[in-house]
Predict the 3D structure of the following.
Amino acid sequence: MKDIRAGSAALWMLFIFGLSAPTYGQAGGSPGNQETAGANLTLKSTAPIETDLTGNWVSIINADWRWRMLPPPKGDYASIPINAEGKRVADTWDPAKDQAAGEQCRSYGAPAIMRVPERLHITWQDDNTLKVETDAGQQVRLLHFIGWQAPHGAPAWQGDSVAKWEPGGTIKNKAGGEISRPKYGALQVTTTHIRPGYLRKNGVPYSANTELVEYWNLNREPNGAQWLVITAVVHDPTYLQEDWITALDFRKEPDSSKWDPQPCSARW
Amino acid sequence: MSICQCFCGRANIVHPYFAALALIATVWSAPARAEIDLSGNWAARIHQDWQERTPGPEIVDYMGLPINNEARAKALSYQASELSMPERQCMYYPPAYLAFGPFGFKMWSEFDSSTGKILVWKMTGEIDIAGTSIWMDGRPHPSRNAPHTFGGFTTGTWEGDVLVTYTTHFKAGYLRRNGVPLSDEATMTRHFARHGDLLTITEYIDDPVYLTEPEVVSRTWQMDLKMQVTTVPGPCNPEAEVARLTGDVVPHYLPGKNPFVGELTKLYNIPEETILGGAETMYPEYRKKLKDTYVPPARCVRYCCGWTLASQANTLKCIGIGFSTLDAPLGR
């Protein structure tokens, strides 16, 4: 009996320590809660309290200006870690041919679209889908909550995107009540099944094997300005020597008055 | 009294002594929530602005910078030879240069022995910038009249897993390596967002003297377990590098005399008005000014593959020709 009681005490202590374990970890933040917390959770309901990505955003061209604001010359691959095959393909770039073939959206695919000078309009299509529209190239990205089943269709310019919050979002207790919802957090987006296209307007290619992983952070400045910062990792073993890692800045705008839809262009 | 006697007493009621012990254990074992660990050596991945960050920007290229006329005039007077003057050889760039230079950095924390909490996060670069101490104990910034240092004075707070810092009191210097100035009135807010082995730092730089709106830039570094960064800056011993600079000469261009103003126009057909920058050039609608008239060069002729050091093993290689002799090593 004494041993049993001692065992109970140890278990009780273990329970106490267990309760004190972190809800989500440090050093990378496990977003695991969203996978296990229950089927009634949505991308919207698990959003961190202070992280509202919806609204109108303008890209600020503060990096790679000459390569983004202007069509770079053929053969200009600075900053992109392409491999020999990537260079071979890029050297065959012919915008007239792309235009004639109806392939003028090649530089507007998911791995490139956020680098295009543009405005974004972000809305909730439904509770599990964040819709990102661009005025440049008139593209639409749909960021689906984990668990979404991608259709088995042909690859599309914007591919199939699955999103989750990091750190993990809402945790539910047995009664369905909300226990914890982070105040701050970032959206992690993984995109695959992308139609092959260009990383840069001058034909630097990405392949059908490309995986794009993004982290969308919302920052606030003392002057009240809100900024969307997207860290993007392009993984393409076909055409890159290593992952292409960039970070892009968008500032929130009060309205859509500067929205300026333009079709894709192979040359501009 | 045995543990069980206290803990498992009659009717299984927990003894207050152990309840208190359990509570203490709970508190002790609780992590410092929302404080992600930023410690480590962070290597630059120069997949943006390679030319600016490695060999250096064009001598007159202010595109995408929200500078005012005074900044433009000062930048146009700049000659890089001034860095060879003995009294300027050991000057550091302002802290904001972290995002504009090619280097990685080390980051570590130090604890307050009386509270057990992180007192300060420290950062050091390889060269060019002074170390930064990010004070986490809520201390105020110095008085407006306090001396300025190369590293400035920085405080930090956490917003979830993002470290937000605010820097003041750094010395005047350059925002870009081609002489675009930053004043000692400038301040900087930084956001440190770690995602796995990636660390993205966004800098928001305000300067009432030289900028018409904040300069904002984000860069990403990657954890590198093999990179070594010293925690103390190397020694700097100024000496006469150029004989003509040992007297009273300060290298400069007089107004209207900078011979490099038209260089980007010759190389890339970019209009001079655009090259001279300003906030207008940061926004997508600026492209409309250029769309109907701009003609790109037929082929890239310099800095075409900017990510290589062919002679060094285990680094990126420049594929094929592309004026690789002009390229510099992958920065760290």
